[in-house]
Amino acid sequence: METLVKVPICWIYLEMFTQFSDLRSYKYSVYKQSYFWSLGIPGPTPIPFLGIIPSIAKMGLKETDLRLMQKYGRHVGTFFGNLPQLLITDPEMIKEILVRRFSEFTNRAQSFRNVEFFDSAVNVAPGEHWKFLRSTLSPTFSSGKIRNMTPLISRCLEKLTRNARNMSEGGKSVEMKSLFGAFTLDVICSTGFGIEVDSQSNPEDPFVVNARKAMSASIIGIRILLSMLFPDFQIFFRNIPLMDQKALDFFIEATKSVMQERRKSTSDNYKDLIQLMINAHKEQSDKTTENEEGMNYESYKKRGLTDREILANALIFLLAAFDTTSSLLTFVSYCLAVNQDVQDKLISEIDKELCKKQPTYDNVFKLQYLDMVVNETLRIYPPATRFNREASADTEVCGVKIPKGLDVTVVVSAVHYDPEFWPNPRKFDPERFSPENKGNIKPFSFLPFGAGPRNCIGMRLALLEAKMAIVEMLQNFRFVTAPETEIPPKLGKGALTKPANGVYLKLEAL
Ligand code: HEM
């Protein structure tokens, strides 16, 4: 939400003026405020034009959500700016929306669309277009394809250990988000684009510089924020760049040149995401993208992936993979440093099962305690705190009336902290996920990667990469708190769970 403070105040006045300057807007504004009351949905009285934004700016999204759910229950009507959002944490309702009645809630909320270029990305595309993209891209993330990426990840692991050694030389504390951020960037560059970089040692590499620029703006930029504040006026925001335009152009050019090279090449050695997408491209597709209105799944399938779709999805994979996976790794290292007994147990498991062998796809997924530690970290620090769906028609779910077009947001962090499903929720306790206890977990109360047909497409890649990195680190180091370690770490205010001031730890060489 750092962008919040940058919203020019004149926009707010402009909105107020425009809203009250004609009857339609005035009626709309009044209607907005009574929107949830008329549906019988509890929630805070909306602050005109801002909704819960002041609270988010003050205490962060995660804390605001937690308090709302504690005060109003498992479904709450709120306004993000002027945009109504139904926040839900009831596992039964979540199951209905994400799985059982998926056909009524296929799309993401409107606020995340209307973004040319990204409208071809799988996380944004609606309806039949989404169905086509998802079914075309899913095989790219199959276990076989991900297993083939292991050698690419292994090469990045070598750089990770070397960088960790250099950074911790002389007993210095290491900022873990930067260390793991560099590693995850190296991984996504090689598994996504087939480009080898060493972001820690060569921070000036143009690919690294532009990736960082692109990711610092991220998809929740000023443009999205304005669209949420003033949903009726999205059309006026189309000229505001979504992200650093130069960084975007750089990636478009870089991806295009990789695509050109690959199309000329006869080698079938490439195992990265871009190659897998090129394989799903059909020659005629670029000529048939003009008139897409009303296209159904079958006609999309006939035309194959277009260059624009390959570009948009390559970029989305980069954005979706970076902060999420590096935050997961950062919080695992923190949780292990402050729970040395858990770290001992994990190191013993790794030593016993791997006997100093390198981490691979086949051995890391067999480590039971590692899986428990990763899951518990994802519960306490879910990298994505919220995700949403949009109702395609007026409907009712678990007795709650949901009008067509309403943004239904699943509040992952609040579900993960619900004491009814997770006793003593702030306690880090991997035993919750032990084989004996796993069966007691309430279905749909653990959602780090979402659920149903539109869950995270990159889950397997993220888990492979994270688990390989944890094993590699614990074969070489022990995580220990340093005088600078913030306990517990202060979290950023936005939708991604990130440490606000970094996580500083000592790495004791084993
Ligand atoms: C720890 C790492 C990650 C976490 C916690 C995470 C979490 C999530 C969540 C919560 C969603 C929304 C799911 C839903 O709506 O049900 C999502 C969607 C998505 N994720 Fe991830 N993600 C991670 C890593 C990745 C990676 C590595 C990639 C790609 C390389 C990726 C690509 C995507 C895409 C494309 C979507 C949209 C899927 C769709 O709309 O069909 N994510 N992720």
Explain what you see.
Belongs to the cytochrome P450 family. It is found in: Endoplasmic reticulum membrane; Microsome membrane. It contains 21 helices and nine strands. It is α+β, with helices and mostly antiparallel strands. Strand 1 and strand 2 form a beta hairpin. The radius of gyration is 23 Å and the shape is globular. It starts with 8 loop residues before the first helix and ends with a strand. Protoporphyrin IX containing FE (HEM) is lined by residues 122-123, 134, 316-317, 320-321, 324-325, 328, 383-384, 387, 448-451, 454-458, 461-462.
Properties at a glance:
510 residues, disordered N terminus, alpha+beta, binds protoporphyrin IX containing FE, Cyt_P450_E_grp-I, 21 helices, Uridine Diphospho-n-acetylenolpyruvylglucosamine Reductase, domain 2, endoplasmic reticulum, membrane, Cyt_P450_CS, heme binding
In short:
Heme binds at residue 456. It is a peripheral membrane protein. With 510 residues, the chain is an alpha+beta fold.
